[in-house]
Amino acid sequence: MKLSKYLTISLSIAMLLTISTLSSSAITPASDYGSNTVAKKSKPRVVIIKAEWCSACQKVDPIMMGLMKEYGDKLDFIMLDVTSEESTAQAAAKAKSLGLSSFFEANKKMTSTVAVFKGKKSVFKTAKNFNRDDYVRAFEKAIK
């Protein structure tokens, strides 16, 4: 149990370090999506529901980190963390500010969910999917 917790913490730290090195356009903070700016954003959004305790999320994280580096200039990546009650409340507020409340409410208990939105429409959704090629196909289709 201690080793698992250590690995989870290590993975989370590595993920935060990776995210901080990505270009600022790779992950768009919620504050950049005011009610008027959502309509102006032309990049599709990749929404990821994750939790530190989720083993499937730990398998998806490295795939997403690589894809964030590759597609960060073409897609906006949005992480919704449901690890704790506090982070879930923050994720709900973030989802609301992005116009994703109904999606979040419907999927917040389904950790490792990855969805692609083109405008307000969900064009791809999967969970517990460790196949990088599935994500690449969905991302390429969304940016066309």
CATH homologous superfamily - what is it?
Glutaredoxin
DSSP strand tally = 4
Nearest-angstrom radius of gyration? Answer: 14 Å
Instruction: Quickly count the domains.
Output: 1
Estimated helix fraction: 40-55%
Tell me, rounded to a whole number, the average pLDDT: 82
The largest sheet, given as strand count, sense and whether it forms a barrel, is: 4 strands, mixed
Beta-strand percent range? 15-25%
CATH topology title: Glutaredoxin
Low-pLDDT windows of residues = 16-39
CATH class: Alpha Beta
Query: Strand order of the main beta sheet, please?
Result: 2-1-3-4
Tell me the overall shape.
globular
Q: How many distinct helices?
A: 5
How far apart the termini lie comes to: 45 Å
What sequence of helices (H) and strands (E) makes up the elements? HEHEHHEEH
> Which structural category fits the helices and strands?
alpha+beta
CATH architecture: 3-Layer(aba) Sandwich
Could you describe the 3D structure shown?
The structure is a single chain. This protein has a 4-stranded mixed sheet. By secondary structure, the chain is of the alpha+beta class. The chain contains 5 helices and 4 strands. 48% of the residues lie in helices and 17% in strands. Strand 3 and strand 4 (121-127) form a beta hairpin. It has one domain (2-143): Glutaredoxin.
